[in-house]
Design goal:
globular; 4-stranded antiparallel sheet; 415 residues; 27% helix; Rieske Iron-sulfur Protein; Naphthalene 1,2-dioxygenase Alpha Subunit, Chain A, domain 1; alpha+beta; 7-stranded antiparallel sheet
């Protein structure tokens, strides 16, 4: 980065006021976006896929992370990840998307790699050519309870193994590694990636989600002391449902306690098993299960939802009957990809065990509503009249996200 641009970013980081939104350039300017790629997306563990997308040897998918393209594939029983760059003259090897492959063949000059990244064939090379020196460049990859993460850094954040060990017991009963993909959608939102993440980290705006609020309690983020009068009936229902769920979790030996370390560590996260309204089973209009085949060996669909937030780019809802994953990838200062994946039991049959419209309805509507809100926010922060505003107490997770983000930029600027 040119010194003048670097100084501009450093000054904005230094001015950041705790408890207020970020200044406009963090959301709009190219140099800030470029710093985000290097300080966050090129250094942190990122959610990019699920094991269920890669069930068999040779199954692969590609993911675009700023200027980086990464291949994630299954090599026998091992997950591997590589930069999607041929070691000959740099051509992309695989096109965007997923599929299955025997070997990885560059379409330019037919250099061929095994699924372990070794160079198997390079036409017309001299006698002293050593293919062992030209294997694909590897990327760190790890599956956590069926969720696949990659890290582009040579030395990934060291705390990821500890975080994985703490969240896997929550995920294990749902057996996501044995699930199958029921649906996946890609939605390009007209906003900066941080606005997408901030929007997810609060329910201050949840009155804009009528489908979601059939079962998701609108008191999320409130405490007993600051629940407004109009939300008191919902809060009382939540307390009753929460007490019932805690008894169920303890009877079934399911971990449920809140762990919230969103900004105090490199791999910030939050996990909690929590109640849902109405039937309390799923994100559907009546709260009843959307799939009659439960995940794993769970004994009842009435388990509320397991909510997991991971900095910097993902959140998850895991229920008794299905799971939904959300991954955020930056495309441009004002464009962001939101990828949503629905998982069901591996033996669940579409049209028999679940109706796709019922399964997808709530979060498809919610994603579209959020995209409109993010676009409005992007328009607002792009105005010369915009000034950072104060967070409400219920937006404490937005503040935690911004504090985590600013800490990553400070680390980058000190390198």
């Amino acid at each position: 980065m040119p010194p003048q641009a670097r100084a501009r970013v450093r000054d904005a980081v230094a001015r950041r006021a705790t408890g207020r939104s970020l200044e406009g350039p963090f959301y709009t300017d190219r140099e800030f976006f470029d710093v985000d790629i290097e300080a966050v997306f090129a250094r942190q563990w990122l959610f990019v896929a699920v094991d269920a997308e890669l069930p068999e040897p040779g199954d692969c998918t590609t993911v675009e992370i700023g200027p980086y393209s990464v291949i994630v594939l299954r090599d026998d029983d091992t997950l591997r990840a590589f930069h999607n760059v041929c070691r000959h003259r740099g051509a992309r090897i695989l096109d965007p998307g997923g599929g299955s492959t025997g070997n990885l063949v560059c379409g330019y000059h037919k250099w061929t790699y095994g699924t372990d990244g070794t160079l198997l064939h390079a036409p017309s090379q001299p006698a002293d050519f050593d293919p062992g020196c030209f294997g694909l460049r590897t990327v760190h990859v790890r599956s956590v309870g069926g969720l696949v993460f990659v890290c582009l850094a040579e030395e990934p954040p060291a705390d990821f193994a500890e975080v994985a060990a703490r969240i896997e017991p929550y995920l294990r009963p749902h057996q996501l590694r044995r699930a199958k993909v029921a649906a996946r959608t890609d939605l390009v939102e007209d906003g900066n990636w941080k606005l997408v993440m901030e929007n997810n980290r609060e329910c201050y705006h949840c009155d804009g989600h009528p489908e979601l609020l059939r079962t998701f309690f609108p008191t999320y983020g409130y405490t007993e002391d600051n629940v407004p009068a109009q939300l008191r009936p919902a809060h009382e229902r939540y307390l009753r449902a929460d007490a019932e769920m805690r008894e169920t979790y303890e009877r079934l030996d399911l971990p449920y306690a809140l762990i919230e370390e969103l900004h105090i560590r490199p791999t910030g996260f939050r996990i909690q098993r929590d109640a849902l309204d109405l039937a309390g089973e799923s994100f559907t209009p009546d709260g009843a299960a959307a799939c009659c085949r439960l995940l794993g060996d769970l004994a009842t669909p009435r388990l509320g939802h397991l909510a997991l937030h991971m900095q910097p780019n993902s959140w998850f809802h895991v229920l008794g009957d299905h799971a939904i994953t959300f991954g955020v990838l930056p495309l441009a200062p004002d464009k962001t990809l939101l990828r949503t994946t629905w998982l069901v039991h591996q033996d669940a049959t579409e049209g028999v065990d679940y109706d796709p419209d019922t399964l997808l309805r709530v979060w498809t509507a919610t994603n579209e509503q959020d995209a409109r809100l993010v676009a409005r926010a992007q328009q607002g922060v792009s105005s010369p009249a915009y000034e950072p505003g104060p967070y409400a107490p219920t937006e404490y997770q937005v503040e935690a996200f911004c504090a985590w983000y600013i800490a990553r930029l400070r680390e980058e600027l000190q390198r």
